[in-house]
Structures are given as C-alpha cells and as structure tokens.
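#structure-requests
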Amino acid sequence: MSVLPVALLAVSLLLVAVTAAGLFLRSRQRSRLAESLERERVLRTILDTVDVGIVALDKTGHRLLTNRWQSELEASAVPAGSPGPAQEAELLLAGHAQQAPLPPERRPIRRAAAGETFADYLVSFGGPPGARVVSTGARSLTDHDGGCAGAVVLFNEVTGLMEALAAKDDVVSTVSHEFRNPLTSIIGNLDLALSDPEELPAQAVRRIEVAQRNAERLLALVSDLLMSANSAVHVRPRRTDVASLVEASLGSAHAHARSASVALSMDVPGPLWANLDPLRISQALDNLVSNAIKYSPDGGTVRVSASTEGGTVRLLVQDDGIGMTAADAEKVFTRFYRSPAVREGPIPGAGLGLSITKAIVEHHGGTVSCSTRPGLGSTFTVELPTAGPSAS
C-alpha cells in the first residue's frame, strides 16, 4: 500500500479536526461574549433602577461607571449657563447647612480617589431654593494581591429627612421658649411665698417646696430642650483655670449628692490653665457630675479627676453605679436616648444632657467618650486642647 494516500488522509483528518476545533472555540467565545454582554446589561439595568447614586473609580481615580440616578443628581448641580455635563469640581456643592462652596479636595469623589474611606458625609447639591442634601460614603476596592483597585462612592438623598428634623427642632424650640417664661414666673412667685415661711403652716411650706422643686426640674428640662434644638453652640474661649471649674461644679452638686447619699471626690492639681469657654465647660461638667450622682447607688462615690499632657486637658468623671452595656454606650450621646433598663426604672431624665455635653466639647475641638460595664459603673473622659478651639 502506498504511504502517500495514507499521509494525505491523515493530513486531511487533521485539518478537519483543527477546523472543527476552531469553529468550536469561536462558538464558545461568541457564547461567552454573549453571556458577558447579557450580564453587563442586567447589571446596568439593576444599577439604573436603584434610587441611590453609584460611582465606581479605578485606581487612578478615573470613573469606570456612573449610574442613571447619579447622573441626574449631578445634572441638578450643574451651574446655570454651563454648556454641558460638568466635572465634580465644577458642580454647585456645599457642606450641609453651609453657604460657601465645598473645596475641591473635600468633595466626595475627590476624597474617594485620594484613598479616603468615609460614611454619612452630608453634601448639598445645587443652589437654593432647590438644593438637595445627600449622604455620601466611600469604600476602597482591592485586587487579588490586596492592593488598591479603585473605590465605590454611594450617594443617598436625605433632603426630606433633614427637613423633617429641622421642622421638629423648630417645634421643640418654639414650645420650649413658650414654656420658659411662665415657668420662670411660677418659680419666682414660689420663691416669694417661701421667703417668710414662718407666716405659713408647715404643711403648706412642704407643698410649696414640692411645687418649687418640680417647677425647677421642668425649667431645667426646657432649657435642655432649647439647647438641644439650637444646633449652633456658641463658645467664647478665654484663659481659664479648669481646676476652679471642677471645684465649683462639685460645690454646686453637693446638695444633690448628699440627698442621694453619694460621696464626692476630687483629684485635680491646680491650677490647670486652658483657653476655653468657662460657662459652657461648667455646663458640660455639671451634666456629667449630675448624671454620675443620679445613677450611683446609696453609699456610692463619684470621683472627678483632671490632668494635662501634651497640650491636652483630660477630665475624668467616674461612678460605681449601674453601668451600661456596650450597645448602650455607643448610643449614650444621642439626643433623647435612654437605655431600656433606665426607662423601666424610677430614674428621671429626658436623655439630653450627654448630647449637649458632646456638642459643647466638640465645639471646643475636644472629644468625650464613655467606658462602662453593667453593674461596674461608668467613666466619662473629656479631652480638651489647652490652646482652645480652632478658628472656624
């Protein structure tokens, strides 16, 4: 048998096999391409359906994806007369409740491109009166080696929520203001009635004293509500001895502590000088000390200490009272928050004192934190810069 026909047959079969394999591979590639395009179409449909803005960036900060909601949001912030779509740096963006434009380096996409991770960063899109308040957040993306592969930025409109909060604060402020004047008058007249107690029966004196105490409690609550509703905490710093503020605060709390059978302890080397608002810091201290007394058991002790280190004044208010869970401690500085255990007990309060304290401390450029365990008491730590708050 001749070898040539056999060889030609083998070559023919090989060519057929190669051709078939090529056709199969091309078919697979077309199938995978079709699948890929279909997945991309579905993903794009999903992203364009959700009512939040989404922007994906590559590791160089360039946009890979912008969904429809985000495109519409950015279109609403394009300056009047602009010929077409604008870059983020050209959009009308401002910080929440601020009139000045947001600097380019503080804009959400710019921050994400710089590698920042953030959440609940409020930004106002567009100019008044139709400005939209948006809560923004960013998360970094990583590649297989753990390196930076880009970032995803989310935009969620909260205009309605912010308007509702503002309306609530207006109502609280108005009602509290209307309560304050008659309460002040009531307390003044009760004071006059008690100015000469010998002229009144003993039982009448006791009843007037009960009315006076409750009117003063109500006036304190109204004052806290007014302070809470007014988000602008004004501080007027000056050179102040913190040790004298602590001493005055404990002196004011002495009667409260004695009636609650709680001892007061002070460990403050004086003087401790810092540039702060003595009235506001005294208010914050009074809130912390009053809370510590209120939640301490009979025979307990409230300890207040202070020190300075590295340009910082550190104040500690410690008690050995009921304490809190870790979950409660995370929410304790939230307005109107009271833990379930406290709400079910006889201890009065509206949950405003600590939120006001936090606002005062933060407006001084400081921080306040809580360390606590159930049944083992709580420690509140206030740290304030001795140089005072930065100019705003």
